[in-house]
Specification:
With about 500 residues, the protein is of the alpha/beta class. About 40% of the residues lie in helices and about 20% in strands. It has two domains: about 280 residues, Aldehyde Dehydrogenase, Chain A, domain 1; about 180 residues, Aldehyde Dehydrogenase, Chain A, domain 2 (3-Layer(aba) Sandwich). Helix 4 runs antiparallel to helix 5. Bound molecules: nicotinamide-adenine-dinucleotide (NAD).
């Protein structure tokens, strides 16, 4: 067994994943660190999917009757198990998704944080009491569990996105069926093993409450098309969302869509440039440009452009690119060859549109794909700048008028995350009022959201919201109840229907 494969097997063993689950299947799994095969997982077939959905339906019918604070207890135990497994699961995230260790650990921390949030939420699933126009009546709304929640997730947040959905879905009284990215099956199997430890400690949860179906697009489609799945929460590219949304609409299923981003930052003349430099550098180069919230477009005011962009270029030239298991690395690998090819197609297109490219070269060779992050000075917002290329490319543009910069900022199809660096209160507020994104920040970058806020974006990002705030409502259904405790039957709006 080669190095990474052996390390992976050791981690999976410690995390409690059965050996057969990752050695005896037909789908090879590769680590982007070296490109080598680290496992062979079994793909769920139609019978597996059918059985999983039947079990999830039965689990839902039992789980919805368990009091919500007791459901919260399961999520609390899961949070404890995650704390115990944090280092191993984080290392597995590094091996399978290529994140540097602190980002891998950060991802598992997000899972822990959402568990804490959901435990509190399990005692706060409240509705309103509403004034009624009829005497002797009471009107209220009650939130009920929804059903089976299908989660389809992307490779770049291989465990946190599932946890955002699952922790809320479970305290809300639902069961969960997860179709992880075909590029990251091992972290999913490990997460499931950790969850099963929490289930055993909990004791009497119904079988099939949370399940994993390993597979590609077809397995996702099976969840999307099955009437037993009440809500599909799908995270991935806008291309995927465009395929999934009409199919869900066709059967009137609920959808949470978390799709691509093309996130912009404005650096204004009054900005604290040290802060801006760090915020832009992390936003654009962190996770090797493979976050939905990665900074992809940068608008720098003319008066500070030359100095600021020179500093940024120096940061780009000096950043450590390489195997994330080495301590000097800040930028790990691209996930695979297709990601590399997409980047290599975008850079000449940018050049053809008048861009000046700095960086972007491949580092090393073989079956892994490491690149130096690219900073591209563009004469305007044209060509590939308008699209999300899921790689570390930052398009930099000048502006001289804030309203024009904000207009350009909004003038792309996606609407996920946005930021301005300024110390001018008026500029900050103008930006917050005008940004058309689901996330808008002042003096911090576009990536690295906390779980307490609702996460998601507008336009082609899909409109979904996950995680904090009141995102839990999407995992429940609302019933409006009116009770008449009088001995009369007044009709609403004064309608009379007198039977004589
Ligand atoms: P992807 O669209 O290739 O795949 C995402 C998931 O969807 C995978 O599990 C895949 O198997 C599944 N899938 C693909 N086509 C499907 C179909 N027709 N029906 C059902 N399932 C289908 O995305 P990826 O390459 O894994 O991830 C990168 C993309 O995800 C980027 O565009 C990124 O911006 C986006 N993303 C968005 C968010 C967000 O919260 N908005 C978070 C992470 C990633």
């Amino acid at each position: 067994m080669a190095g990474i494969e052996k390390m992976t097997a050791g981690l999976l063993d410690t995390l409690g994943v059965e050996y057969a689950l990752y050695t005896q299947g037909s789908m090879p799994s590769h680590s982007p660190l070296t490109g080598e095969q680290i496992a062979a997982v079994r793909i769920a077939d139609a019978a597996d999917t059918d059985a999983a959905l039947a079990a999830a339906g039965a689990a839902f019918r039992a789980w919805r009757d368990v009091p919500a604070p007791r459901r919260g207890e399961l999520v609390r135990l899961f949070g404890e198990e995650l704390r115990a497994a944090k280092d191993d699961l984080a290392t597995l995230v590094t091996i399978e998704a290529g994140k540097i260790p602190s980002e891998g650990a950060g991802e598992v921390q997000e899972m822990i944080d959402i568990c804490d949030f959901a435990v509190g939420l399990s005692r706060q699933l409240h509705g309103l009491t509403i004034a009624t126009e009829r005497p002797g009546h009471r009107m209220m709304e009650i939130w009920h569990p929804l059903g089976v929640v299908g989660v389809i997730s992307a490779f770049n947040f291989p465990v946190a996105v599932w946890a955002w959905n699952a922790a809320l879905a479970l305290v809300c009284g639902n069961s969960v069926v997860w179709k992880p990215s075909e590029k990251t099956p091992l972290t999913a199997l490990a997460t499931q093993a950790i969850f099963e430890r929490a289930l055993r400690r909990f004791g009497d949860a119904p079988a099939g409450l949370s399940q994993v179906l390993i597979g590609g697009r077809e397995t996702g489609e099976a969840l999307v098309d099955d009437a037993r799945v009440a809500l599909v929460s799908a995270t991935g590219s806008t291309r995927m969302g465009r395929a999934v949304a009409p199919r869900l609409a066709q059967r009137f299923a609920r959808a949470i869509l978390e799709l691509g981003g093309n996130n912009g930052v404005i650096v204004a003349p009054s900005a604290d440039l040290d802060l801006a430099l760090r915020g832009v550098a992390f936003g654009a180069m962190g996770t090797a440009g493979q976050r939905c919230t990665t900074t992809r477009r940068l608008f720098v005011h003319d008066s500070i452009y030359d100095g600021f962009v020179a500093r940024l270029k120096a940061a780009y030239a000096s950043v450590g690119v390489g195997n994330p298991l080495e301590s000097t690395t800040l930028v790990g690998p691209l996930i695979d060859r297709a990601a590399y090819e997409a980047m290599q197609a975008a850079l000449p297109a940018a050049k053809a549109a008048g861009g000046v490219v700095h960086g972007g070269e491949r580092v090393g060779d073989g079956a892994s794909y490491y690149v130096r992050p690219a900073l591209v000075e563009m004469p305007g917002q044209v060509g590939p700048v308008l699209e999300e290329t899921f790689a570390p490319i930052l398009y930099v543009m000048r502006y001289d008028d804030l309203d024009t910069a904000i207009r350009l900022h909004n003038d792309v199809a996606a609407g996920l995350s946005s930021a301005i660096f300024t110390t001018d209160l008026r500029e900050a507020e103008r930006f917050l009022a005008a940004s058309d994104c689901g996330i808008a920040n002042v003096n911090l970058g576009t990536s690295g959201a906390e779980i307490g806020g609702a996460f998601g974006g507008e336009k082609e990002t899909g409109g979904g919201r996950e995680s904090g705030s009141d995102a839990w409502r999407q995992y429940m259904r609302r019933a409006t109840n009116t009770v008449n405790y009088s001995d009369a039957l007044p009709l609403a709006q004064g309608v009379s229907f007198d039977l004589g």
